[in-house]
Specification:
Layout: H1 2-37, H2 54-69, H3 76-85, H4 90-94, H5 102-116, H6 119-131, H7 140-159, H8 168-176, H9 181-191, H10 200-229, H11 257-261, H12 264-274, E1 334-337, E2 343-346, E3 349-355, E4 361-368, E5 375-378, H13 379-385, E6 390-396, E7 406-416, E8 426-433, E9 471-473, H14 475-481, E10 482-488, E11 495-499, E12 502-510, E13 522-525, E14 528-529, H15 533-540, H16 557-568, E15 570-571, E16 577-579, H17 593-600, E17 619-626, E18 635-640, H18 651-654, H19 665-673, E19 677-683, E20 691-692, H20 694-700, E21 702-706, E22 712-716, H21 728-741, H22 747-755, E23 757-758, E24 761-766, H23 769-784, E25 790-795, H24 798-804, E26 816-817, E27 824-829, E28 832-835, E29 840-842, H25 856-864, H26 874-900
Parallel strand pairs: 4-9, 5-8, 16-20, 17-21
Antiparallel strand pairs: 1-13, 2-12, 3-4, 5-9, 6-7, 6-14, 7-8, 10-11, 11-12, 15-16, 17-18, 19-24, 19-25, 21-22, 23-24, 26-27, 27-28, 28-29
Helix pairs in contact: 3-5, 6-7, 7-10, 15-25, 21-22, 22-23, 23-24, 25-26
Amino acid sequence: MFSVAEEIWIKYKCDLNDALSKLNVSIQSPKECNSRGSNIKLPKIEIQKFTGNYLEWTTFNDLYTSLIHNNACLDNVQKMQYLKSYLDGEAAQLLRHVAVSADNYESAWATLQSRYSNKKHLATCLLDKLLRQSNATETARSIKNLLDTTSECLNGLRNMGIAVEHWDIIIIHIISSKLPSDSRLKWESLISTVDELPTLDQFREYLHSRFRSLEFLNNQTKSTTNVSKGYANVNSVNTTNLVCQFCKENHKLINCKEFARSDYDTKLNFVRASRLCFNCLSDHYVFKCRQSSRCKICGAKHHSILHHRKVLGNGDSNGDGVVVSPPTKSETNVVTCFSNFHSQVLLATAEVPIESRTGALLPYRCLLDQGSTASLITEAAVQALGLKKIPNKVYISGIGGRNKSLASLWVVELKLRSFHDPTFTLIVKAHVLAKLTSFIPAKRVDVPFWPELSSLKLADTRFGIPNKIDLLLGAEVYSQILVEGLIKGPPGCPVAQKTLLGWILSGKIQSDESESHQVTNVIVSMHAQSKEDNTVRKFWELESDVVSDKKKMLTGDKVMCETIFERTVSRNNVGRYMVKSPFCEDNPIGKHRKLREIAMKKLPELVPDEQCNEPDVVYLQHHAEVLKDKSTTKVRVVIDASCSGITEVNSNNDHPVGPSFQHTLKHIILRWQNHTLCLVSDIDKIYQQVKVTLEDADQFQRILWRDESGTIQQDRTLRVTFGMAYAPYPAANVLQQLATNEDVYNAAAVEKILQDIYMNDFMTGYQTVEECMKLKNEISYILEKGGIVVQKGASSSKATMEKLGKGRGNKQTELEIGTDNEIEVTEKVLGLTRDSSTYKFKYSIRLPPIQLPVTKKKVTPDISHWFDPIRWIAPTIISSMFAYVRSSIKDIFCRWCVSWC
């Protein structure tokens, strides 16, 4: 018995030893593999940051789990730090409040898993990506992208456990509809011979062969083109990662703003050190450059950015000979440049840097013309600068003012700088023409000896060399760049005038008689006119998307208005604001009283009154206007400040129009219609809520009126007057100033005042009735601290209207629009009608009866008066614009026929 048990024990022991030996071999084999591969240096596995995109979650989850989450060598604090470092965007915001600690790791990882391990949402994203692919074009890249995206989406759905093996006919139908016509026709021809349903593998094979054929054809086309040119077309290779050699940003050196703003020596040394081409700034030498473009200033073989301005002298002339001359008004519209046997006339030219769309400063030669009422620019300069063109038809006329053969169809806005004053910036609106004038001067000009000329910083150092003109600056710009300083040279020398662009030279120059020869006189006439086309231009201005901002660039009169307002605005003891009236001139006085008395004495029972002997006083003309459609103000006084006096001086011409800092009407209406409940209020007489200084009221705002006895008396208006050109600016700016001063009371109400008021109409919204009443009370409290009263209100909620009550001007159902039994409760704001019950906007357009024939003059007034800031009635307006264009073409054709008759 013992011997049998011993044999069994020995047998099982041997079996166990054999099993243990086999197990040791299987465990040691990966170690041996690791020891053999330990000397091989593999690249580091990078985990891309997860931004919250559901399509990227699977890849991020697998990598992070394998490398960090399941790594036993890392504790939870380290894993938490790694987790937050690999999150960005929406995913990082999800854990932004979770501190880095060991206790928070498991909950943070579980939060990410619960948010993004959503199979339903992931499947929806994959299907959307599959179905929303754009239509392919007949190129290899486009068809390849269509195939790759389809395979990516199907593999993602398959990895989620969705059986996509039976979707072949559905996928083929979807993807084949996105193929271009030629590729789809060939696919249909391929499967038309077989009655069986095509498989997805067959469709993939066809797409593979299709884009390979297109690649082969494309390569053959490129090689043929390069052989015909005689050299390899290196420029056809597109690089996606552009690195600027100067600032290391993602753009070319030619588009680098920092490089363009650097001084000449810095740019020159950098190009030399980097061994770049001086002509195109590319990575080759200039003698190997094949580009035909040259410097736009001097025509040499270097880029315009590298053009060197040689300034004559180092300082301005402050010695004898400087004459301070006041600006004078030019009444001529003709610029004449002529030469005869013994003299030439030099025109004032300057070289100015203009900022392009990319921010680079490109130098251009301009002509300063006091006789032009508009600024002009060539089409070539507009294209080179990349400026945005705005449609605006303007006729260019010269002597006689009747020649309309030359017209500008576009206007651009450009930013001028100065080579001599880095702080100088001027915004100029210029009309676009194909060509401005011939070379100026007509021939080379040699200035006689003039010692003072060498010490001046000239605006155009090449003033005597004939060259093209790309920009003409009119009288408006000319008056803004003039500064005190005028030097008259000896006989035969030009006159030097100091400007912000540098010293400009103009005038007659005596030339050497032996070198003179006959030259045909050249006359350049520049004068811009805009008549009935201005109404259409104002109509198109409603399409602008710019939101007013106090930080935007202000120019000319707007800067003056803002300076006067900031310097003189004040508040009296009751909180009302007081401003000073801005004027374009120091003493804008005309003889107004006599004309106003003549107007008053036209009444039949007028009795003469003793005349006031104060000469320097402005009297405003006024009359009453009855407003039948108003619920509060039935009668108002209208001031006619455009009526001129005997000396042809009127108040509106003397007052500059200030800038507008309120939000545009388009943005206010879009915000207003998105509120759950809407509230509309009206500020009572917004202009009359602002006082003017007593000095301005007494001298510039007097009126004549007649009492019941018929005696003409005089009075002065102490408030900003409706009808004055400058009135909207202080009224709107006072609201901005009041909201800024009262910001400590309620930030939400202040924000509503800054954003939701357009002149005197206040349009805002709220969520509940209680919020409405609280908001209205806070806004009314802030406005009343400045003496401004909100007089009426309307709401889309009946409960809100009951809370508002029947106060002054509060609407309930007093405005009813409809016929028969159809009654609608509406509010009319800014010319729009909004239905409170259906939350719809309505337009009421009254078209006059059609009078044949339809002409441009008949169509223009009707379409220019339509008010559509958000393009809600765009189909109607577009149809009308087509009628305008057809009538314009017809008028042009008729004038052409008449000219040939």
